Amino acid sequence: MEDTYLTIEKPTEPTLFKDKSSKFYGYAFPVLNEEMAKLHIDHLKTAHKKANHWCYAYRLGVVNMQYRVNDDGEPNNSAGMPIYGQIQSFNLTNVLVVVVRYFGGVKLGVGGLINAYKSTAQLALEDSVIIEKTISQCYGLIFEYKNINTVKRIIKDFQLKILKQEFNEQCYVEFEIRKTDAEKVESILKSHFELEITPLND
To answer: Residue 1 above 60 pLDDT?
Structure first.
């Protein structure tokens, strides 16, 4: 079972592609949700007030991937899909690519637009720092204080990453584990009847 994915580490500096006096500025951003994507797009619309088009594509998620494309007034499928094609080509997710166009007065035709948006997106992603991330599963664990040594042993054996812990009469631990190890650890914890385990990000 694959439990890693590729994304970009940080926003890129703008790249520039020119064709027949039109200028295309490419940007790539790491994003986790639609709200983050919208904030970046809105910011670019403010930063490039005199531009003619702000076309984009993004892909989100690591198991059930979602994507969205936008031609922003360009002919259908001449901008958003070529941008998205580059996200696919680099095998990335949790990524937004925006191409800002300043029209230079000469029409490029649909073929020219497809090439321009594809090339600009490619330049932006080539300038990105691509990183591999691990898909993780988070759990909440409730148990009595008398079971603390059992829990600590399991945490140590599987090198669980602790996110939060409270040790009172009833103890609570939140932890994160690689997706590939999650089922095994969940099964072990459930075999201890006095431990109550709940998945947190299903």
So the answer is: no
